[in-house]
Amino acid sequence: VQAETISLYNPIDHPRHPFFGVKLTNTTDLTLMEGPVTVYLNGSYGGDAQLTTLEAKGERVLTFALDLGVEVARDRENLTSQQVSVKIVSGVLEQRVQLRRENEYRIENRDTKPRTLIIEQPYDGEWELVQPRDAERTANFHRFRVSLQPQQTQTLKVVEQTTQQETIALLQADDTAIRVFLQNQQLSEPIRQALA
To answer: I need a labelling partner for 116 at 20 to 30 A (CA). Which of 6, 21, 33, 176 fits?
Structure first.
């Protein structure tokens, strides 16, 4: 079994600090059964964790203590939209809009030792990860690996995008809905004239 010392940040578990953890890789052909695990680091007691069943060649992250030497702040979540296309076909207006979601994490390592930090952000199958491309994905999360030097502050920007399509039956739409739609500055002149 291989073990790598990490710090794992998930804002659901703690809003500012990651947890010390161990990323286990079962390199055997055997299944490791669930149960309690005592973690020792550099010959000293580190904490206790609970291992779920770990299949052969599988990976798990066990967390065991709060890492107060590292602080993470999610500085902003920004959602923008851009119209990709608009067309009118048989009295139905079809609009495609690209949504872009950005999260920026500010990470500060106040400790005198380097850290490998893994930031977990929820995975949503409707959104495509644009930046950074080298994320690990679990069933529920994207995981972003950040190497932190002692006394270092850095940022991680995560960008995702999705395209949505809306349809409006123009013959059934009221004047207010069409007026609101006409306020869109990105509409082409032929579409604007067709709606007027």
So the answer is: 33
Whole-prediction pTM: 0.77
Strands (E), the chain: 2-9, 19-25, 35-41, 44-51, 59-66, 70-89, 92-109, 115-122, 128-131, 136-137, 141-148, 152-169
Q: What is the pLDDT of residues 147-189, one digit of tens each?
A: 999 999 999 999 999 998 877 776 666 666 666 665 665 655 6
Q: Using alpha carbons, list the distances in angstroms from residue 172 to 44, 166, 191.
A: 72, 15, 18
C-alpha distances out from residue 18 to 25, 65, 71, 182, 183, Å = 21, 9, 7, 47, 45
C-beta neighbour count of 6 within 10 angstroms: 22
The backbone torsions φ and ψ at residue 192, rounded to the nearest 5 degrees and listed phi first, read -60, -45
Residue 2, C-beta contacts closer than 8 angstroms, at least 6 positions apart: 24, 25, 27
3 state DSSP class of 191: helix
